[in-house]
Amino acid sequence: MLKVTKYKTIAQDPDKYLSFPDIIKSPRKNNRLFLIYREGDSHHPTWSKLILQISNNNGKTWKVLKEFYTDLEEDGCVWNCPRLSYIDNALVITCDQKSSTHERTAMFKTVQLISRDEGNMFRKVSVAMPGMVPDTIVKFKNKLFCANHKIKSEKNDLIQLVSWSRDNGDTWYDTNIMAHSEKKQFCEASVVNMREYLIGYLRENSGHQRNVYTVISKDGIHWSKPRKLSIFGQRVTALKDEDQKGYVIGAFRDTYIPHIYIPEPEWEHPKLAVSAFEHNLDNNKIMLTKIDWEYSRSQYHFGYTGMVRTSPNEYIIAYYIKQTEENPFIKLAWISKIK
């Protein structure tokens, strides 16, 4: 069972749209965490910044370390959804850039910002991954894997891909299909290394309240058919449970709406949530914990998450949320596993 122990607002500005956070623990220094998120003028911005913050005391205090700015008019693109990874001891920000505020017709490219000195200096590299919304980079069987999905048409038909590198991240030309269906729209995968195999958690985007699915691969190239889970939601962030064999811990935008009577006006009542889960892979059962709430009117303005294990049975979830504010803001929740 998971339990929230405290919350902390990290960044908020009523005039700016803050979104898409991710968080990671440094392998080079104890108690050091990095947090990244996007700042812009709207959900589909005309200008944007990636803001990287650092904490040297396990999340108690934070300060801005770097900012990376793009503008549609000046640069021809804006940042979209960043993810943090480590390749060996190098901190890597992987983020897609888009050429328009209209995603269905926009051109996408993927960029990596690479730092070998813990965020002081970065080198910008364009990589050959197709598509958008790249995942955290996962090492598995001497290869690196990064999930990403692609828009196939203006009808927003989607296909979930996974790119992989055979040379430790120097090139990313190899790409395979993770999940594809004519009826379902799979996207926004989160991949977890379970040592013997990879498991991917997928959003199904043919409607708002749709189940999360999983796929499995023993080589990262060939994937099983999608399997439906009992949870409804979008943009899962998942980690292997290092404290309990055969379990995955995750967080996501929970879109399940209970079928209960709510008096008018319905939009005044919170109905959605940022949620965390424990997934028992042996029996496919899921235990769900609500982390924070959101109004249904803000269903696309909250809940994309990042997640990090800070100590045995302790995690921090980073997410964005709007609630009663003019614009979304960045928040952290500390969760503990209770036996």
Explained architecture:
Helix content is 1%, strand content 57%. The protein has 339 residues and is mainly β. It has one domain: Neuraminidase. The strands form 5 sheets. The chain has a 7-stranded antiparallel beta sheet with strand order 14-15-16-17-18-19-20, with no helix packed on it. A 4-stranded antiparallel beta sheet has the order 1-23-22-21, with no helix packed on it. Strand 6 and strand 7 form a beta hairpin. The longest helix is centred in the first third of the chain and has 4 residues, at 72-75. The N and C termini lie close together (6 Å).
Oligomer: single chain
**Overall mean pLDDT:** 94
Main pleated sheet: 7 strands, antiparallel
C-alpha geometry: globular
Radius of gyration: 19 Å
Structural class: mainly beta
Number of helices: 1
Question: Strand sequence of the main sheet, in spatial order?
Answer: 14-15-16-17-18-19-20
